[in-house]
């Protein structure tokens, strides 16, 4: 009904806001099949993923970042990795945005989670990645200023020795 009154962008913003705001609300309907969270499954799959990262030769720092992202995500959604869906990912990313995390942090979180779920899919632990259809997050690129010929010449003129001159010429 709101499609007549709101633009497509306003509808998208409304949907995102509702998803984030209603995330902690419980909406009940008749449920006939409940899947119990088996925390051991999440722990075991993360241990297996860590072993594969070691085999791939990832650094400890990289592994720590991936594990931190995954543990945080699983604690937030409180679901078994097999039961994660696209909406869980979108809500999590929306919460990070609403908590004013920097754009690069959110991009890194998304990347780490997507890598895990791709690995789980490739190794047949899950049948579909929850990242299918989740849009990439655009980051602002910082455009570097290029020095003009006059500015480079001024730098060369102010060099005190050959080493400084060689450094400037490398630029």
Protein model, in words:
With 171 residues, this protein is an all-alpha fold. It contains 7 helices and no strands. The chain has helices at 8-21, 39-56, 60-77, 86-98, 103-122, 149-157, 162-170.
Task: Describe the protein's topology.
Blueprint: H1 8-21, H2 39-56, H3 60-77, H4 86-98, H5 103-122, H6 149-157, H7 162-170
Supply database-style keywords:
single chain; 171 residues; mainly alpha; 7 helices; flat
Name the structural class: mainly alpha
Query: Average pLDDT value?
Result: 82
Q: Could you state the order of secondary-structure elements as H and E?
A: HHHHHHH
Return Rg in Å.
24 Å
How helical, in percent, are the residues? 55-70%
Shape: flat
Q: Could you tell me the number of beta strands?
A: 0
Number of helices: 7
Uncertain regions spanning at least 5 consecutive residues? 30-37
Instruction: Tell me about the largest β-sheet.
Output: none
- Give the amount of beta strand, in percent: under 5%
Distance between the termini: 59 Å
What's the short version?
The chain is mainly α and 171 residues long.
